[in-house]
């Protein structure tokens, strides 16, 4: 298992210095890191820490985060996507993450679904030849993202299949999926190759694996047994210090 620490949450209480969290991730034996909002980060400091630690950057969130369910956002998103892909290439990330945006009042689900398909088709043109893929991320609408459009992994996969371009994939966050009552094997059956990146956290609390009741290990085993071979992104809020949260995580999911 190759673990990627989301340093928005992991090592945050240990180090207000953002780039230094990369060194702490290396010291904790992790393989990669990931973060959000690259436009707000000190990129030269991040670049230096990545070079020094030799950790990978598993993913970046594509900026700007604006609702792709709204066709009026598409031009701005595609301009930002080009810059995000350049940044991903500069820092060595192979995956950009996109969120669908909110379920917009006054628009049918079918219209918004089509808006996503159209936008991601243009996104594939932007990404063609860059070596970077875009992962659309379904999120739970029960706890963390009330009003978000894409709460179903199957609908995310359907959108990916309608776009039908190698540059467009999904991010499968096991936490969001299980919170929505999905069964990993059921929703990803025959479509595991559409998964660009995986996230984990436990429930309740969105804390480290092993702190709650989700069967994360079962989902992860299914993913790896069925051909997923990418990073496991640790996108959780540590209940206490990051080091002890990692000990619980490794006990629960297996160390690497
Ligand atoms: O915004 C969230 O909840 C995410 O999972 C982002 O990856």
From TrEMBL:
Enzyme class: isomerase
SUPFAM superfamilies, sorted: Xylose isomerase-like (SSF51658)
Name of a matching Pfam family: AP_endonuc_2
Gene3D superfamilies named among the record's database cross-references: Divalent-metal-dependent TIM barrel enzymes
Recorded GO MF terms: hydroxypyruvate isomerase activity
Superkingdom of origin: Bacteria
Domain Xylose isomerase-like TIM barrel: residue ranges: 22-244
UniProt keywords, alphabetically: Isomerase, Pyruvate
Coiled-coil residues: none
EC number(s) on file: 5.3.1.22
InterPro entries: HyI-like (IPR026040), Sugar_Epim/Isomerase (IPR050417), Xyl_isomerase-like_sf (IPR036237), Xyl_isomerase-like_TIM-brl (IPR013022)
Active site per database record: 137 (proton donor/acceptor), 235 (proton donor/acceptor)
Lyase found in the keyword field: no
Family per similarity comment: Belongs to the hyi family.
Protein name (database record): Hydroxypyruvate isomerase
Lineage: Bacteria, Pseudomonadati, Pseudomonadota, Alphaproteobacteria, Hyphomicrobiales
